[in-house]
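Need residues for this backbone.
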């Protein structure tokens, strides 16, 4: 099922994993929708000085978030962040010189890895080690955390997009 703007609608009934997957995909599609039809320059536009937050920076940030939680934590892959070998998450927000093509390719690659890892996991109880928290976390927590992260940043994306060209809506 899709909603009128072509995003996949989260299921209204179903199992926990199906619901989590559906809401995560919905929020991923929402971020992409907020960026549709904008030039690289518009995607780099900041709406709320002194904040340097931009839509392109959000896409880059979410690539790091996907990579960290699914590949580094759940899959225990020893991969650096996309934009910072030193592990500085703030680097992703710096969109200077970045392009839509570069940011979206990285983000879509990480989303594909995340989907593959989630689908291959035996259950939502699979755990990985989150070094920043010094704790094991479940795939369930990771999916909930990403839904929260996307929802929060999609709120930012709403304001950014409206300031760019007046487009509003989910």
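Answer:
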């Amino acid at each position: 099922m899709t909603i009128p703007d072509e995003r996949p609608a989260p299921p209204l009934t179903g199992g926990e994993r199906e619901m989590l997957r559906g809401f995560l995909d919905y929020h991923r599609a929402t971020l992409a929708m907020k960026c549709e039809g904008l030039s690289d320059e518009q995607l780099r536009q900041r709406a709320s000085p002194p904040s340097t937050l931009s839509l392109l920076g959000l896409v880059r940030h979410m690539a790091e978030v996907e990579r960290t939680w699914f590949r580094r934590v759940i899959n225990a892959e020893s991969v650096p962040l996309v934009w910072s070998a030193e592990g500085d998450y703030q680097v992703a927000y710096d969109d200077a010189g970045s392009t839509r093509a570069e940011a979206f390719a990285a983000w879509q690659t990480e989303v594909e890895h995340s989907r593959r890892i989630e689908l291959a996991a035996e259950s939502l109880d699979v755990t990985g080690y989150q070094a920043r928290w010094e704790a094991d976390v479940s795939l369930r927590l990771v999916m909930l955390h990403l839904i929260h992260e996307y929802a929060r940043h999609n709120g930012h994306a709403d304001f950014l997009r409206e300031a760019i060209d007046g487009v509003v809506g989910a």
